[in-house]
Amino acid sequence: MTADALTDVTGLRVGHATRTGDGWLTGTTVVLAPEGGVVAAVDVRGGGPGTKETDALDPRNLVQKVEAVVLTGGSAYGLDAASGVMAWLEERQRGVRVGPDPAHVVPVVPAACVFDLGRGGDFRARPDAALGRAAVEAAAASEVGAAVPEGCVGAGTGAVVGTLKGGVGSASTVLGSGITVAALVVANAAGEVLDPGTGVLYGELFQGRAEYPEAQAHEAAQRRLAELAAKNAPPPLNTTLAVVATDAALSKAQAQKLAGTAHDGIARAVRPVHLLNDGDTVFALATGSHPLDEGHPLALNEILAAGADTLTRAIVRAVRAAESVTGAGGAWPSYEELYGGEGAGREGRGRGAGGGAPQLKCGEKRPPAPKV
Asked: pTM score, two decimals?
């Protein structure tokens, strides 16, 4: 039994810290590696990234493994969340050893941020070191293989995709070889995930499982989105962040290739993508428990393909798990509210799209999103 999430890569844990209300709509998500760290790499394709310690992941550089990766809201201000994670790791003597004393460590904590400033109403409400520490503590307290909360949590709390509410999503794939490939995403793109002509999610079109809404429901949804877009301030910066992980034994160079090809998974689900006002960043992690077939020089290919496909599926899950938000910072309806009910021509997808469904605030509970 798997969680269909990043945590299906044994040893990886995910923790969220979320703040809403009183001007807040943001949070931090931490991916915590098993003690001793994991091989890590990164590929940045967006034109406006906000990152920390990504140069350390270059295959030409010294650091071979990392203990944690931070995804956070708050734009560049929110990168301060990584300091809380560093402090937590240092207390446990986890990091790059730099001296004779076991306590002489420097935790290398790569981090990347999404733009969500002001979406809760207060531009100065953004993650700090305390929120980062809360997220890593949540990760450490979770069980191995635990389900990953999705939607309006952690770094996805204030996420927006185009004109829709975004959020956190996760998914996993087990290959015929027994190798697991998984993804965690914070969907917060300047581009759209929704085909304006049909109302179908681009990611579901790619998967070949799209359900087309009825024309009347689609027209009503498009009218509402247009009205809200005219009222909301245009988002100056957006970003899709992801962590793609595998239990295969990869070098840093192979992990970097995985991070790069995984961006194709974003491009299948978001259009347009990698713009100047995006900071699209993908981290790749490899725990190394499954060796690759050394006699098969192309053995990495199936992992590369699965990474992109699984990331597309994670984006779909993020959008479907998102909850509508209306507040001082703006109003962003969820895809499920607009298109999820039987009135939208879908089966078993929740309430109608006619606007009568009660809106949920980020952090309120609803039944788990269906697997996609």
From this structure: 0.90
